[in-house]
Every structure is written in structure tokens, then in C-alpha cells.
Amino acid sequence: MIEVVLNDRLGKKVRVKCNEDDTIGDLKRLVAAQTGTRAEKIRIQKWYNIYKDHITLADYEIHDGMGLELYYN
Predict the structure, then answer these.
(1) What range(s) does the Ubiquitin-like domain occupy (predicted)?
(2) Which domains does the chain have, with CATH numbers?
């Protein structure tokens, strides 16, 4: 079980607990449940790399305590 911190740069930081074998789509659904926005409207990225929904967190080498950027489309 890892904890990922997502910052939307508008003053909101979301902490989500998930497994490393979860996909980015699963992470989006967990964030959507906490923030109240729809999962389809969420974009997760790090610098200029936009993460795709079907790839797991372990494949992107996302570890415990890592910070990602959260954008709303």
C-alpha cells in the first residue's frame, strides 16, 4: 500500500492510498471520489508526461510519498 500526493496547483492537495499494481484509471477514480469531480475530467501528469489510464503505477515507477500534478479538463 502506497500513498500518492496529487497537487492541483490551485491550493488543493489530495492524498490517496492505493496499491502499486493499480492502474492510473483506478487512481483517477479514487481521486474523483475524494474531490467530487468526474474521473473522466481528471488528468494526472508529472512535468510534461501525461499518464495513460491503462498503465500501472509500478510501470511508471510511482512510489510511496511521490507527488504528481492534477489537472481538470
Answers:
(1) 2-73
(2) 1-70 (3.10.20.90)
The answer to whether the beta carbons of residues 6 and 31 sit under 8 Å apart is yes
Q: 72 and 43 in contact (C-beta within 8 Å)? A: yes
Tell me the pLDDT tens digit for each residue of 56-70.
Answer: 999 999 999 999 999
Write out the three cell numbers for 57: 503505477
Contacts of 3 (CB under 8 A, 6+ apart): 15, 16, 17, 64, 65
Cα–Cα distance, 2 to 63 (Å, whole number): 7
- Per the document, the length of the chain is 73
- In terms of DSSP bridges, do strands 42-46 and 49-50 run parallel, antiparallel, or are they unpaired? antiparallel
